What we know:
Blueprint: H1 4-7, E1 23-25, E2 35-40, E3 45-46, E4 54-56, E5 61-69, E6 74-80, E7 87-89, E8 101-110, E9 129-131, H2 133-143, H3 146-149, H4 153-167, H5 175-186, H6 193-200, H7 204-214, H8 219-237, H9 243-250, H10 255-266, H11 270-279
Antiparallel strand pairs: 1-2, 2-8, 3-8, 4-7, 5-6, 5-8, 6-9
Amino acid sequence: MNRFYQMYQPHTAAPYRSGEGYREIPPCGGLQPYVKCFWGTDSPLADTGIIQEGLIVPDTCMDIIFQVSHTNNNISGKFVGINNEAFYSAGLPKESGRPEIRSTFGIRFFAWSAVLFSGDSMVEVKNNVFDVRRHYAGIQKAVEPLLFDIPTLEGRSRAAEKILLKQLNEKRHNTYLETAVYHTLKQKGNLKTAGLADQVFISNRQLERVFREYMGISPKQFASLVRYQNLWNELLTAPAFDVMEAVRRYGFSDQSHLLHEFKKYHTMRPEEARRYARSQFTGGK
């Protein structure tokens, strides 16, 4: 698992977005295999939503999100399980008619590592949102009291790191899952799950059970999301995108198959997705 984050870094639909209303901070070295980033508002802002408006795509991550109302002196915490569907977020409306000062703090786990910070099964988390206490009561109890005293994203992230390092349960590592995830990431999602079970040396049924228990999705769904994310990364970073070469490299049957699969997870075609990502650039302002 320690190498996974070096093999694979998923992206949101707006990876260039950065400013006082939304910023990401990488975790310390000890948490890099488990946490994609900490994210949220730089400091309390007027009328800030829980998540900025915009497209949310499947990023093979799971998030704990704390929304702090400095006006009403309350905090709500949510746990967002892994998604295999895209959707548009409209943000969070004000709780009252008057101006409201709010801040957001999020912890984004890689999907395969979120379970290591919880004592619960992940069987039901796909495309679901829960009260954070449902799966992460220990983290909720330790983090929430700090959020009024520490107003900055940087300070909250550093404090959360110490809490997460204590909450990390090494005994929950599962060799079957981690071996299967390794092969899936190495092959960029372009593999047959029957062959994956053979590589892990367990039956297909056992592999399905392990994935659902620890990630909430099937091996086939995970491989499909990893392939989509690798394709999205290539679209963002390659100087020129050769669709037919991508068809061959990622194992699609033809160009139509690739475009259909991408649009299923992103709601738009590749060229539209690139334009949308660039349109969300805020330049740190």
